[in-house]
Amino acid sequence: MGKSPAVELEVEDRVVRISNPDRVYFPARGETKLDLANYYLSVGDGIVRALRERPCMLHRFPEGVTGEKVHQKRLPNGAPPWVRTVRVHFPRYNRHADELCVTHVADVIWAVQMSTVEFHPWNSRAADTEKPDEWRIDLDPGPTCSFDRVRRVALVAQEVLAELGATGFPKTSGSKGLHIYVRIKPEFGFQDVRKAALAFAHEVERRAPDDVETTWWRKDRDPSLVFVDYNQNARDHTIASAYSVRGFPEATVSTPIRWDEVPDVDPRDFTIATVPKRYAELGDLHAGIDDAVWSIEPLLEKAARDELEVPDEQ
C-alpha cells in the first residue's frame, strides 16, 4: 500500500505540511499521525503554555508507538525558519545541543510532522537555562503500588504545599503516576531546586510513612510504595509536559486535573480521543500557573536544618 498524500494544516498564520497523515500511530483505536496533529491543535494554548521558551527534548516514533523510539535532543533537520531553538550545554560530555524552543503552536505541529509524540521540556527557560522556574513533584509508584496510594500521597503533598503557601498544579503523568508543578522564582540553580525538592519529599514521607519513601536506590525501595522523585529536578532531567501525548497504544495524555478530581481520577480516562472535549469545556487548568510564583527558600532552610544533601546524580 502506498503512502497517503500529504495534507497542509493552517496553523494560525503558518502552514505546516503533514506527510503520510494516515499512518496509524496508536493501534488501540487506530488513531493516525493526522489525528495526533489535530489533537495538539485542539489543546494549542495549553501545550504552548507548558512548553513556552523551554529547551525541549522530543520523543519521536517514526513508525508509530509500537516501533522504535528516538530520543531527540537536537532539533531535527529541515525545520522552517520560524522554528526557534535554544542552545544548552552538557558538561558531562562538554557538548552543546540546539533544542526546540516552542513559542507558537505551529512549532508543535511541525514537531508532529517529524514524528514527535511526546514533548519533554526542561524546567528552565531560554532566558537563563541554568535557573529553573518550575519545581516538579513526581509521584512515582513502585511496580506493585496501587493507584489509590498515589492519590492519597497527592493529597498529602497538597496539604504540605498549602502550609508552605505554594500553589500546586496537578496532572496525570499519562502513565502510572501523578505530577504536581509549582512555579518558582528563577533564583537558584538545579542543585538547590533538587535539594528543596528533597526536603519536601522528606516532609511528605514523614506525614505518610506507610505510603511514601525517598530511598535513592531503586533496588532498595519497597515496590508497593510511592517514591517522591526529587531527582526529576536535576539538570537535563525531563518528564512529559502537560498535554503531552504518551507513546502508548492507547494514546494516553498527561492531563491537568483539579484537586477535587484527585480522589477519583483514573489516568486511563484521558486520551487524544477524550481530552479535546474536556479542554473545550474546562479550558487549560494550568492557565494560572505563571501567576502563582513561589520562592523555594523555606524548603532550602528546612534542608539546611535537617542537614540534607542530595546524592550525586545518576
UniProtKB/TrEMBL annotation:
Keywords: Ligase
GO molecular-function term, one example from the UniProt record: ligase activity
Signal peptide annotation: none
Residue ranges constituting the DNA ligase D polymerase domain according to the UniProt record: 32-286
InterPro entries: LigD_pol_dom (IPR014145), NHEJ_LigD (IPR052171)
Keyword field contains Transmembrane: no
Protein name: ATP-dependent DNA ligase
UniProt source species: Lentzea cavernae
